[in-house]
Amino acid sequence: MKLDALSKQLGHTFKHPGLLQRALTHCSHSVTHNERLEFLGDSVLNCVIAKHLYDTRTDLAEGVLSRQRSNLVNQQTLVTLAQQLQLGEMLLLGEGERKSAGFRRPSILADAMEAIFGAVFVDGGFSAAEQVILNLYVPLIAQADEQAMGKDYKTLLQEFLQSKRLALPKYTVIATQGEAHAQVFKVACDIAQLNISTLGEGVSRRGAEQVAAEVAYKKL
To answer: How many other β-carbons are positioned within 10 Å of the β-carbon of residue 204?
Structure first.
């Protein structure tokens, strides 16, 4: 039933429902898992978003388009979509991953999201995958700040503070969780003069800093 509900949310009826189940299967659970679909979905996602930006942002140069695409297909955006679809509760994980709350791990959620795109592509071709991806992404693109689309949030936050002649934020790693091959970093972004402190989480220190900076920038 959950897979049927997910199919409806995606707007795609699978001719081969086993593909969707495989997309939700982590390598810790079974030898039949989602890594190959993830590989395919990553490429399809990049192509669809690149084509959409090319078609709709005709006034932008290649460099800006590349930055916009990077900001749209990054892990944090994929995790946001996965959370909207409540993928965490549908993931098939091995016992170790379940005990370590793998259903909340950003890398696992993002990989599953890409695997779903790959599954739709295999099941229905490029047009079907394009429709599913744009159904999810177009609202995000419409809501995105045009300036933020071309720059990362650490840069935007720094430029904003400099324009107000305020000190730059301080980033501090406050926790590192997980095994060495699958670590999750938690980083604090502190702006002392404005009494603002935000948290970010990611599979790298830089990624966690970007998330924390994004939260702080949106507060400002």
So the answer is: 14
Distance CA 121, CA 114 (A): 11
Instruction: Give residue 13's Cα distance to chain centre.
Output: 23
Structural domains of the chain sorted by starting position, each given as residue range(s) with its CATH number in brackets: 2-144 (1.10.1520.10), 153-219 (3.30.160.20)
Q: pTM for the full model? A: 0.70
Spatial distance between the Cα atoms of 208 and 206, rounded to a whole number of angstroms: 5
Q: Strand, helix or coil at 165? A: coil
The radius of gyration computed from the CA coordinates of the chain, to the nearest angstrom, equals 18
Q: What is the pLDDT of residues 15-64, one digit of tens each?
A: 999 999 999 999 989 889 999 999 999 999 999 999 999 998 888 788 87
Alpha helices in 11-92 (DSSP H): 18-23, 35-56, 62-72, 75-84
Using 50, 70 and 90 to split pLDDT, how confident is the model at 7?
very high
pLDDT at 110: 92
Catalytic center residues: 42, 114
Provide CB contacts within 8 A for 208, sequence distance 6+.
Answer: 173, 185, 186, 187, 200, 201, 202
Cβ atoms of 199 and 187 within 8 Å: the answer is yes
